[in-house]
Amino acid sequence: MTFARRPFLLAGCALAMFASAGASHAQAGNKNPLEGRFQKIEGFAFDKLPLNDAIKTVHGNGKYRLAVFSDPNCGHCKRIDKDLKAIGNVTVYVFLYPVLGADSLAKARAIWCSGNRQKAWSDWIDTGTAPADAATTCSTDGLQRGIDLGRQYKVEGTPTLVFSDGTRVPGAIPPPWISTLLEASVK
Q: Could you give the CA distance from residue 17 to residue 120 in angstroms, rounded to a whole number?
């Protein structure tokens, strides 16, 4: 697998920016702190995503759909994963997007090449149980396609959330914002 590192935005910076923007927006008397903050991906169709190249997890009834570009070593990605479990009723498709260094790429490869990707991802995110080293014969084509998809959608850092209506959110955001965007994405 080839993967060239590029400069990426830090999710923590994005979180601080969104949190302060939301607070100043609310102080200005505006009712919706989300309005105008995120971009929709032009021509996006959730059903056309290569979902077989993602790790699928269903929380609750899975009513809402969300794609998340996530680095195994990203602390904010781990928090978003836990937040999504608490929000519930969402089907999450995690596209491994190892941008934080060689260790991230090794972990992503090990998760991808495990016998049960969802379990390997969940074990790593929930308990810090590292996946076993990947077999050298494992095909990482699907992992590479996920990385390429992230580049196509201009994912510059992790986590990046893509809602079913094509709304792209860079960085971690508070759970109430995620819930609002999930609900808005199906209207």
A: 32
Token pair for 145:
């396609």
Block residue for tokens 């602390």: 75
Q: What is the pLDDT of residues 112-131, one digit of tens each?
A: 998 899 999 999 998 888 88
Q: What's the half-sphere exposure (Cβ side, CA atoms, 13 Å) at 125?
A: 26
Nearest to 150 by CA among 140, 160, 141: 160
Q: Strand, coil or helix: what is 40?
A: strand
The predicted model scores a pTM of: 0.80
Q: What is the DSSP letter of 32?
A: -
Q: Which of 154, 160, 149, 175 is nearest to 68 (CA)?
A: 160
Helix (H) or strand (E) holding 167, with range, is strand 167-170
Cα–Cα–Cα angle for 148, 63, 25, nearest 5°?
75
